[in-house]
Design brief:
CATH topology of one domain: Aminopeptidase
Largest sheet: 8 strands, mixed
Strand order of the largest sheet: 1-2-3-4-5-6-8-7
Number of strands: 8
Structural class: alpha+beta
Distance between the termini: 28 Å
CATH architecture of one domain: 3-Layer(aba) Sandwich
Number of helices: 6
Helix content: 25-40%
Strand content: 25-35%
Length: 205
């Protein structure tokens, strides 16, 4: 879902590099959490052995969820999609999975990813995207993933998140509108382009 990024009017100046290791923080990320209904999950960095779990999770998605995530109807993830996930380096790409269950019963029910690039204005920005299985939507998971991704991206010194969202995807637009980051959005041909400033906060509505 990559798209050209328009130049931003202002990008906050980044401070000196953090003393901790931002790559290690993302690569080793693991945080237990509970959905609103009390279901325990684990938000963690993607692992090399997740490939089959990702394929299984994709097959559980409704066609509409696939369309809102990939902007197209597809029955399978392509080899390129899977290779991109396998190539996650937690520098130029960060992928977090949401796991439910343990051991052989562990399944992936959602995740967030962002891919870093240099924008036209010279800022380091990242395109962010979410996937949540339908049975677990409306449980606060996307908002939690947004907060975690924001923390990790700030540690990496990124200036902003960008995203392309279908205009009809109201739940995802609401997550961005309520995340507490200054928001710019433009709409064109049924798609909303989102820019979120990682340099400062606003009070959530």
């Amino acid at each position: 879902m990559a798209s050209p990024a328009p130049a931003a009017a202002e990008v906050p100046a980044m401070t000196s590099p953090p003393e901790h290791d931002p790559v290690g923080e993302a690569a080793d990320f693991s945080e237990p959490w509970r959905l609103r209904n009390g279901t325990p999950v684990l938000i963690r960095a993607i692992r090399p052995d997740d490939r089959e779990r990702i394929i299984v999770a994709f097959h559980k998605l409704d066609p509409q969820s696939v369309y809102t995530r990939f902007f197209s109807h597809r029955r399978e993830l392509s080899d390129a999609d899977l290779d991109r996930l396998d190539g996650t380096d937690f520098v130029n790409s960060v992928v977090l999975a949401v796991a439910h269950g343990e051991g052989d019963d562990e399944e992936l029910i959602g995740g967030v990813s962002y891919y870093v690039r240099r924008a036209r204005d010279g800022a380091r920005v990242a395109e962010i995207a979410f996937t949540i299985e339908e049975d677990y939507q409306g449980q606060g998971l996307a908002s939690k993933l947004m907060a975690v991704a924001t923390r990790l991206a700030r540690a990496q010194g990124l200036a902003r998140f960008e995203a392309e969202v279908l205009a009809g995807n109201a739940p995802m637009l609401t997550v961005f509108q309520r995340c507490g980051l200054p928001l710019k959005q433009t709409r064109e041909d049924g798609t909303v382009h989102i820019e979120l400033d990682l340099g400062r906060d606003t009070a959530p509505p």
